[in-house]
Amino acid sequence: MSITLQHISKSYKKVEALKDISFEVKENELFGLIGPDGAGKTTLFRILTTLLFADEGTANVAGFDVVKDYKAIRQNVGYMPGKFSLYQDLTVEENLKFFATIFGTTIDENYELIKDIYVQIEPFKNRRAGKLSGGMKQKLALSCALIHKPKVLFLDEPTTGVDPVSRKEFWEMLKRLQQKGITILVSTPYMDEAALCDRIALIQDGKILKIDTPEAIVKHYPKTIYNIGANNMYQLILSLNAYEHSYSVYPFGEFVHYTDQRTNFELNDLKKYLEAENLTGVSIQSTKPTIEDTFMELAK
Amino acid sequence: MKRFLGFIEKEFYHIFRDKRSLFILFGMPIAQILLFGFAITNEINNVEIAILDHSKDATTGEIINKISASKYFSINQFIEQEADIEAAFKKGKIKAVLNFENDFSKNLVKEKQATIQVITDATDPNTANTISNYINSILQNYQLDQNKDIKIVYQIVPQTRMIYNPELKSVFMFVPGVMTIILMLVSAMMTSISITREKELGTMEILLVSPLKPFQVIIGKVVPYIFLSMINAVVIILLSIFIFKMPVQGSLFLLGLESVLFIITSLTLGILISTISATQQTAMMISLMGLMLPVILLSGFIFPISSMPAPLQIISHFIPAKWFIIILKGIMLKGVGISLLWKETLILLAMTLFFIGLSIKKYKIRLE
Q: A 91-120 residues with CB below 8 A of B?
């Protein structure tokens, strides 16, 4: 096991940030921690990267205890905090060189590992890090976190505030890193990114809701989901919420994801009801549940 | 070691790329020393005074000549009547008025006594005091000259000699003080800010999750500032020698060593401040309020410690600057060596060790 957590709890003055968290991340796995802001993801990362003590429970990273062997862990992990944490007044190359030096290595030594990522920012290597765009900053931060060839990589919300194209590229890079034998624990508030992980843990309010592969998590969704569209989105949500058999109603892009309390019912009844509510252009189709649906259901 | 050097290299990048910190580092010391040296002074020069001479006779003329001949005073105007005195003061140009009584010479001969009223503007009490002292001594001189031939039964003549600063130049008093303030402020404030900046920007988080040891981070932060403060100390000493003709009676080498010691004391104070403050702003406030004020008020730089109330005198013992100022004055003005300054040096050394111990104890290897 690359990462093991057993009954980890952590409280700040008044808030209980983590409640009895236990899970394992296998060697060479791309493991996602999926949850909204304030779910406790960052606290969990800080405990695993030896920056915080847990109140209760034990945790191991790369075979080392996070409390006793914190020095060994600090040699062996790469950490990219949620906030951009490089030196803004240093250039791209100086940042990379600095992190290589303090980990006792050089850029040349591990260039192979970061090559794919670094070539994209290399044209800007003399630019100050503070002047880079969001996507480039992330690439630089990832390069810096990787430069010492860590066994385990911790990425705390690496794609927050990054444009969709860069996000996609970023995940492709993670996949390639995984192929090079690095275990990756990544957190994200974006449900669509969850599908790209080997396994995910859904976390909310400091509690793990479910851990499984993305496919399995979706498969176990208990109900049929309907994609409902109409010309007046706002009215549609109000009407569906008011419907006597309604179970859940969530806006999802230009549609509403709707589930019904009954297992079997006539779609036409629902359509008639909606049209009676003065809605036009009503369309109803069953659809596959997504991770977001599962999350909403579990968090309910 | 390579890691450590890499860290120091990075620190120098930070310093040289931040125009503000460069300015604080090198602009402030020069500006301060020039300000204190030229502008802030206890001496009086060419103070403008007014004369109200009711008798206008030979004696008053002689006295007025004597006063206007001295470099301390220049006569701005002659007033004709008492009523105009206040108006003259209110214009703000003159600092004193000499009021000679009617029939000055006649009274002097007949009654053996004549009076001059000296009115000074005491909105600035120190200057007013100095002015009236100077005028008094000019008048006494004149009197002595007049009485040369007359035999006096006996007389006590005090012979005062000012040593170490015979010309009573106030810049001699300010230079050690300013040097102390600058070294303390630059060293302590800049290190505490540069450490808290890493906390604020989140880079400390990454540094913690790296094989760099805490003491490497701290010493790496401190080393560049030791160098820069040394340069500052040299600049200040050169400025005071060449511009203000400040003597260095004692050994320059000892002066250098003691400066390094004090720089290190200040740096450790800076580290201590950074361990208790989370943001650059707090660090700056603590440095300014917690270091600058005590240094100015309680170190004996401006206000003599011996005339402070007892509790403040006790507090002043805990202020490193006080001991450094004693050392500086000793070496520069009196030319004494380590044999007389070992006690102060030892106290500074002990304080430094104490601060180092405390900061190592307080430095967090985690975020909590």
A: 94, 97-99, 101-104
